[in-house]
Design goal:
The complex is a heterodimer of chains A (about 300) and B (about 375). Chain A is built from 14 helices and two strands; from the N terminus they run H-H-E-E-H-H-H-H-H-H-H-H-H-H-H-H. Chain A has about 300 residues and is mainly α. In chain A, helix 10 packs antiparallel against helix 14. Chain B has two domains: about 240 residues, P-loop containing nucleotide triphosphate hydrolases (Rossmann fold, 3-Layer(aba) Sandwich), CATH 3.40.50; about 120 residues, no CATH class. Chain B is elongated. The chains are: A mainly alpha (about 300), B alpha+beta (about 375).
């Protein structure tokens, strides 16, 4: 028995068994199930019945204007927030790295949003942006100070709502990015900067030719996880615009999947599965492109 | 380029330590480094040699004193305006750039009238690479090179702008023993070919002695002795210098001068002229022992190590401060390993006397001693 265990590698599998069971039941099986549902037309989870198989679910979802709106919203969110948040985080980190006094204090301040409760953050954003019977919100107050006209950021024009959503997303992901980038910057060996100084390298060139390549693995890590995170946006949107996202025109792909399952128009697991698979395909494609680019650009 | 250091001093404030004094890393260092020479700054760790190098490079600002390159006072200049090349202990090659890009890097920083065309830059980079014999490795990344090759790239990068002064910080400490031998000769050759005044820092006395035109021995920020390696070795000014130079290290004994004679323990070993009666430390270089059956210094033999080129006789003596007395003798001698005792005569020129309190050299007339053999 002992010999059998050792020679066939069974022992190794035995050690892996708990994790495999857990992952299999809660991760792999549902994934396969979702894939299967997405091809079963009119699947009903209560009666476990469906009418037939085919690609109708995909065709329905792709022609649903709510889904198309959700895709548009999600892509806008991704395209705007990922580069902006990474760029701003890089600027702040470089700033933090180059000051000596109070660096720890600033680092703590920048990290605060990360440990702050989502509800508290929602409240802050409401005070900032929401128009109520009593006030127009802090931002509108400032806009009118400078002679502009107040905008309803929550129920007003599309661009205003999108602005709030992007602003919120950037603000929420910033602390983590700053944390990663400040530690990446701090890990660049001082001797490279000394060498650059002796050679009379300008500040900008030092940053572009030395600092940036040295921390590029971390930047790409942040971009990839940023893309994935933004594609999965849902809870933030609900916090800002409430649960009826289709009506608000601010739905995201994940929000659409949720609505198809549980929302007012819910009870359509087949459509939800198809939408989820489409999201999966999009994220996979983008991540592959990211990895290909990073292989070329990240230099070591 | 002649480099002059005038009363160079660097103090580091005593940060985070209450009631402590400032750390004086370099204390009142004055030295005129002749043009086109290779100078070794030598000392144990923490002696201020690297600080001195960083002061010359401009990466650190001195607390006091001046640095002159030729007639130029560069004390206040930032490193990039001093015209120096600096090779770091860990080479500091940019890992994401190829060897060629690394060597080109300093040239690409040139602005204004110094700006070179792309072709001229490549030409210069190739020239520097040929000088250090890495012209075949130009398209590799530093990570794909051995330690010795990286070292050469670092030297090429430092040389490509034709600096007025080349500074090397522990250039050989990251190399294995064999490569170290090879590279130090390489550094010597490159320095000779370019004729650039070169200052390098090392804690390895053998390294410094072997290639330097002059060595500077430092201890706790204070210069102990400056001179040609052989001169310093043959004529150390104090016990520290004597102990620091030489492998195997010098043997130190408790000694006493009585009536113009040096006693080590009970053994009367040399006659010394012009030295008053006192207790001293007597340092004897390993090669200062001569095996002699009637020799005055009697030691308890503990072992013989045959090295091929010579023989190392290890013995014990009650007055020795080192745990073992190590004598290096020629292979023409044969040591009776069965015997319990071994007797030596001493070569007068290899025996140095030092004051017991200050460690300063106690000098007699001319030679300190003359050989004293029992009749």
């Amino acid at each position: 028995m002992k010999k059998l265990l050792r020679d066939s590698g069974l022992k190794g599998w035995l050690y892996l068994l708990p994790a495999i069971l857990f992952l299999g039941v809660f991760m792999v099986y549902p994934l396969i199930d979702v894939f299967v549902y997405s091809f079963e037309e009119g699947y009903n989870s209560a009666s476990q019945t469906f009418f037939g198989t085919g690609t109708y679910n995909y065709s329905y979802v792709l022609h649903d204007p709510y889904f198309l709106q959700a895709v548009k919203n999600t892509f806008l969110l991704v395209v705007i927030t990922v580069p902006l948040s990474t760029g701003i985080a890089l600027l702040i980190s470089v700033g933090l790295n180059s000051i000596k006094p109070l660096r720890n204090l600033f680092q703590t301040i920048y990290f605060l949003p990360y440990v702050t409760n989502t509800l508290a953050v929602g409240l802050v954003f409401m005070i900032l942006f929401k128009k109520t019977a009593y006030s127009d919100g802090l931002i509108n107050l400032m806009i009118t100070w400078f002679g502009g006209t107040a905008v309803d950021f929550i129920e007003g024009p599309y661009w205003a709502r999108m602005f709030v959503l992007c602003f919120y997303t950037i603000w929420v992901v910033m602390p983590f990015k700053i944390l990663i980038l400040t530690s990446a910057l701090a890990s660049v060996d001082q001797m490279y900067y000394n060498a650059a100084r002796v050679d009379g390298t300008s500040k900008l060139r030092t940053f572009l030719r030395i600092t940036l390549p040295m921390i590029s693995p971390m930047i790409f890590y942040l971009i990839i996880t940023g893309f994935i995170g933004a594609f999965k946006a849902y809870s933030d949107v609900v916090a800002l615009f409430g649960t009826d996202l289709n009506a608000a025109g601010m739905n995201t792909i994940v929000g659409y999947v949720y609505d198809m399952l549980y929302g007012d128009s819910g009870g359509y697991p087949s459509y939800a599965s198809a939408a989820a698979i489409i999201l999966f395909a999009i994220v996979l494609t983008i991540t592959c492109i990211n990895l290909l680019v990073s292989k070329k650009k990240v230099r070591y | 380029m002649e480099v002059t250091l005038q009363n160079l001093t660097k103090k580091f404030p005593a940060r985070g330590r209450k009631n402590r004094e400032d750390v004086i890393a370099v204390n009142d260092f004055s030295y005129k480094i002749p043009d086109g020479k290779l100078i070794g700054l030598l000392g144990p760790s923490g002696c201020g040699k690297s600080t001195t190098l960083n002061l010359i490079s401009g990466l650190l600002k001195p607390t006091g004193g001046r640095i002159l390159f030729g007639e130029d006072d560069v004390t206040g200049l930032p490193p990039e305006n001093r015209g120096i090349g600096l090779v770091f202990q860990n080479y500091a090659l940019y890992p994401h750039l190829t060897v060629r890009q690394n060597i080109l890097f300093p040239l690409q920083n040139l602005k204004g009238k110094d700006k070179l065309s792309r072709a001229a830059m490549l030409e210069k980079a190739d020239e520097a690479a040929r000088l250090v014999q890495i012209d075949e490795l130009m398209d590799r990344k530093p990570g794909e090179l051995s330690g010795g090759q990286q070292q050469r790239v670092a030297i090429a990068r430092a040389l490509v702008k034709m600096p007025r002064v080349l500074l090397l910080d522990e250039p050989l400490s990251n190399l294995d023993a064999r490569l170290r031998l090879q590279t130090r000769e390489e550094i010597r050759r490159i320095q000779r070919e370019t004729g650039i005044t070169t200052i390098f820092v090392t804690h390895d006395q053998e390294e410094a002695m072997s290639i330097s035109d002059e060595i500077v021995v430092m201890k706790e920020g204070v210069v102990q002795q400056i001179g040609r390696p052989q001169e310093v070795y043959d004529n150390p000014v104090n016990l520290f210098v004597a102990k620091f130079l030489g492998t195997p290290p010098i043997n130190v004994f408790d000694g006493e001068i009585r009536d113009g004679r040096l006693y080590i323990g009970k053994d009367e070993v040399l006659s010394v002229k012009g030295v008053s009666d006192q207790t001293v430390y007597a340092g004897v270089r390993p090669e200062g022992f001569v095996l002699h059956k009637d020799g005055p210094l009697c030691c308890a033999l503990s072992g013989v190590e045959v090295m091929g080129r010579d023989i190392s006789v290890v013995s014990r003596h009650e007055a020795s401060l080192n745990p073992a007395v190590r004598a290096i003798i020629g292979t023409e001698n044969s040591v009776d390993t069965g015997s319990a005792l071994v007797r030596f005569a001493l070569k007068p020129g290899k025996v140095f006397l030092f004051n017991k309190e200050t460690g300063e050299r106690v000098r007699g007339q001319a030679n300190e001693g003359e050989e004293l053999l029992r009749p």
